[in-house]
Amino acid sequence: MNAMQRVLTSLSQQEPDRVPYFLLLTLHGAKELGLGIEEYFSKGENVYEGQIRLQKKYGHDCYYSFFYAPIEVEAFGAEVIYSEDGPPNSGTPFLRKDTIASLTTPDAQNSPVLQKVYEATRLLKVDAKDEIPIIGVVMSPFSLPVMQMGFEAYLDLIYNDRALFEKLMEVNIEFCSNFANAQLEAGATAITYFDPISSPTIIPKELYLETGFKVAQKTISQIKGPTATHFASSNVAPIMANLPQTGTAVVGVSTFEDLGELKSLAKQKLTLLGNLNAIEMRHWSIEETKQAVKEAIKKGAKGGGFILAENHGEIPYAIKDETLLAIKEAIEAYGYYPIKN
Amino acid sequence: MSVDIEAFEEALLALNRVDVKHILTQGEHSNNLFEAVEAVVIPTMESIGKKWEKGEVALSQVYMSGKICEEIVGELIPIETQKRANHPNIAILVYRDFHMLGKRIVHTFLRASGYAVIDYGHQESIEEIISYLKRDKVEILLISVLMLNSALHIKKLIDAIHEAKLPTKVVVGGAPFRFDATLHQEIGADALGRSASDVIGIIEELKATV
After folding, report:
1. Distance, CA of A79 to CA of A91 (rounded, Å)
2. Which helix (H) or strand (E) holds B9?
3. What is the rounded distance in angstroms from the CA atom of residue A115 to the CA atom of residue A111?
4. Is B92 helix (H, G, I), strand (E, B) or coil?
5. To the nearest whole percent, how much of chain A has pLDDT over 70?
6. Do residue B63 and residue A152 have CB atoms under 8 angstroms apart?
7. What pLDDT, on the 0 to 100 scale, is given for residue B85?
8. What's the confidence (pLDDT) of residue A202?
């Protein structure tokens, strides 16, 4: 099986030849090319080259065309702050409660900032053909305001001014679905819908059902391709039953939740993506890494519906190549179906 | 759990400011509002923080609860009389990254509990931080981060504090420390706060050493 067949088989809740695994590497591309992080992310060509090299080196079953989380607020005109050893951050929030009413949707298709994402995706598509899935990324309209206006101001808005919240969601839904569709047009196979604020770790389920859930339903229905919803290491169990109704096919799950229990909750309606601890992974020995992979496979892989990954949606820069290679070796050792206990 | 604490927690999680205020002003500790903070506000906030750690309440509820407490305690008790006598000089900052919510929650929690805290906001320069710590004679520095690389950089700051021979104890908190139980030891922190609810206990413990 090629990577695409393997992933599609698992998504259809069947067992492929072996467990598919996504190493969601971004910053390591810069390391591969010997570039600084800011320079690396300045061109689509760099990210394309980085992804090609990383996939060859670690053998995982996808290309990841994600650049950095604040790229969408950058398209709104916000500042991005680069670091020499970590992901770029969004700078000072650009949106206040009293400026939401005048906020307009940037043109995602023609945004100068986003062209590098489309370029990387188009180049990857040439190499991938239809054999390796290209995973694009959007920040959900519901989670984006943390970078647009700051976490505190956004929580205050959700709790205290629902009309203005809805106005902000209108703008963000239009932008998010356009950005997702532009990536799909450029060649992305599927879109990861990052939505950490919808996690029960961040807001109570009742509030999610009134807000993030409805936003996801509306947005995902406008995205013309498959989506995976990722909670960036936050918990999902209390809302697992609601997720299929958003139209998502895959859920990124936390290391703090039990994969076996999540698998039961998914009821073959969702594929699990996870759940290695990418922070702790920094000091795992080779043996500990292999053991963690083995354990995740044991709990999550039976019957398909499982893609091994770490639980943040982005592997930290500090993770050593040896550890990533150990994941590959562990997949080779323990990941072939039928899974042995 | 006393009747007041149970009702207070319920009112806070429901964001019911009227009931929150009523319990403090009409409840069993209403004769002494400072005592009400000790007996009702602090244990309730600690309980909510622990429930967040166990996944029983959401972070937004921790934040909103703290904010309501801070507002109402501020309304009821004049700022000067809120301050505890003999508590160490405490400062708080976010180091290198730009995620401020964790700091805000801890700061709010401490203020609502009667602790004066100097807020240094977002900081990147070790030299500047050292100069602030000297100027303000900070005995306990609370550092919040969200990103792993920011957490790892705290080690350099702690080394600089030691090199400057400052007596400042460093307490760290934030997501990387929740995902890696040994990270705070690796960077040389004096204590780890897994949630805002830990912070008063940690301060009281460290108080004996500063």
Report:
1. 5
2. helix B3-13
3. 7
4. strand
5. 100
6. yes
7. 67
8. 97
CB contact under 8 A, B100 and A83: no
Does the pLDDT value for residue A172 go beyond 70?
Answer: yes
Decide if pLDDT at B80 tops 60.
no
Measured in angstroms, the CA of A279 and the nearest CA of chain B are apart by: 6
For A201, the closest chain B residue by CA position comes to B58
The residue among A148, A155, A47, A64 whose CA lies nearest residue A103 is A148
Nearest to A151 among B100, B149, B150 (CB): B100
pLDDT on residue A302:
96
B55, B149, B175 ranked by CB distance to A318: nearest: B149
**Secondary structure class of A171 (helix, strand, coil):** helix
Put simply, whether B14 touches A (Cβ < 8 Å) is: no
Spatial distance between the Cα atoms of A184 and A192, rounded to a whole number of angstroms: 11
Residue type at A122 in one-letter notation: R
Percent of chain A with pLDDT over 90: 99
> Which class is domain A3-334?
alpha beta
| DSSP tally for chain B: helices H, then strands E | 12, 5
Q: Taking CB atoms and an 8 Å limit, are B100 and A150 in contact across chains?
A: yes
H/E stretch holding A297 reads: helix A286-300
Domain spans, chain A: 3-334
Among A151, A282, A317, the residue with its CB nearest the CB of B101 is: A151
Instruction: Decide if pLDDT at A341 tops 80.
Output: no
Most B CBs within 10 A among A68, A162, A279, hence the mutation to make, goes to A279
Which residues in chain B have Cβ-Cβ distances shorter than 8 Å to A235?
A: 55
- Tokens representing residue A171 in the block: 């703008």
Across the interface, of B64, B98, B104, the residue whose CB is closest to A89 is B98
Both tokens assigned to A92: 């000072």
Retrieve residue B129's tokens. 């931080």
Q: Do B57 and A204 touch (CB under 8 A)?
A: yes
| Model pLDDT, residue B155 | 98
pLDDT at B81: 58
Q: Residue B84: its pLDDT value, please?
A: 66
Instruction: Kindly report the pTM of this predicted structure.
Output: 0.96
pLDDT at A211 over 80: yes
Contact between A87 and B15 using a beta-carbon 8 Å cutoff: no
| Cα distance between residue A14 and residue B175, in whole Å | 35
Residue B164 contacts A where some CB pair is shorter than 8 Å? no
Q: Specify which of A89-93, A298-302, B34-38 reaches the highest per-range mean pLDDT.
A: A298-302
Nearest to B63 among A155, A279, A318 (CB): A155
Shortest Cα distance from A54 to chain B (angstroms)? 21
Check residue B134 and report its DSSP letter. Answer: H
For residue B98, the model assigns a pLDDT of 82
Average pLDDT value for residue range A36-61: 98
